[in-house]
Design goal:
1 helix; Immunoglobulin-like; about 280 residues; mainly beta; disordered N terminus; elongated; 21 strands; 9-stranded mixed β-sheet; 5-stranded antiparallel β-sheet; about 50% strand; 2 domains
């Protein structure tokens, strides 16, 4: 399956509750990152100059590119790293995950002192030379990437949850929301669309929901952080758009569009009604 940059509008599900109840309860049951059970689609494409640490040799550099797509739990991806000016050695690539902060080792590559590159790919990728990604690994869950030398000294890092240093970055997701037992008839769709323009994150996070209690005050949260107070209409429908704010594109305090992993909807007592995971 070829990964195509799709520029979508975005919908997302949220949380209904008072602010104090929301911060504690929403964090307790935020969903995991997409993965094999993703009910919908998500994709990301990015090119990032990696940041050299003080330990990196003078004049050395590294570039990262990632293309990944998940369609209803079927994932295809290609992660490419290119280094210049690093001494002859074996280098190790590891990532941390947005969902739980876990560190995952992807593999290693060698440099003879010239330019070097390595590609990691999922099954179905065209290039036979790709190193396989680990089993059950979700590339859309990558938060950071590091390159270390054989002495375990980190030379380069990249953060995929922020577009601050990205040459280009596009993230799109459309997922079905899950109804909570308290309100099993509720349905909805969450959609996220983000892209970088001259170093600034643009885009929206939206949610369309039906089957909620009518004329009810609610709170939308992302990653367990309150984003907006809203009300359903007289038929129990809800449609909300959260626009990216500031240069980093935040949709809730401390949460930018490239770092969104979940949304929830709760009533004013903190009861979960709907949730969506990316």
């Amino acid at each position: 399956m070829k990964i195509v940059a799709r520029f979508l509008t975005v919908f997302s599900l949220a949380v209904v509750c008072s602010f104090s109840l929301l911060l504690s309860a929403a964090r307790a049951d935020d969903g995991q990152e997409g993965g094999d059970d993703l009910n919908g689609s998500e994709s990301i494409e990015t090119e990032i100059p990696m940041i050299a640490t003080p330990a990196a040799p003078a004049g050395s550099s590294a570039e990262l590119s990632l293309e990944a797509e998940n369609e209803d739990g079927v994932t295809e991806a290609k992660l490419k790293l290119e280094t210049k000016g690093v001494p002859a050695d074996t280098y190790f690539v590891s990532v941390t995950l947005k969902s739980d902060g876990t560190t995952v080792s992807l593999g290693s590559f060698s440099s003879n002192g010239d330019d070097a590159e390595i590609e990691f790919g999922s099954e179905g990728e065209d290039a036979d030379d790709n190193m396989p990604l680990p089993a059950n690994f979700n590339p859309l869950d990558i938060a950071t990437v590091t390159i270390s030398n054989s002495a375990n000294v980190v030379f380069f890092t990249a953060d995929l949850t922020t577009a601050a240093s990205a040459s280009s970055m596009i993230r799109n997701a459309t997922v079905q929301a899950t109804a909570a037992p308290l309100n099993p008839s509720a349905t909805g769709t969450a959609v996220l669309a983000a892209h970088v323009v001259k170093g600034q994150t643009k885009g929206t996070l939206q949610v369309i929901a039906q089957g909620l209690p009518s004329n009810l005050s609610m709170v939308i949260a992302t990653n367990g952080v309150m984003a907006k107070n809203v009300n359903t209409n007289k038929t129990g429908n809800l449609k909300v758009t959260l626009g990216a704010k500031g240069k980093t594109g935040t949709v809730a305090p401390g949460v930018n569009l490239f770092g969104v992993t979940s949304m929830t909807v709760r009533d004013k007592l903190g009861n979960l009604l709907l949730s969506a995971s990316f």
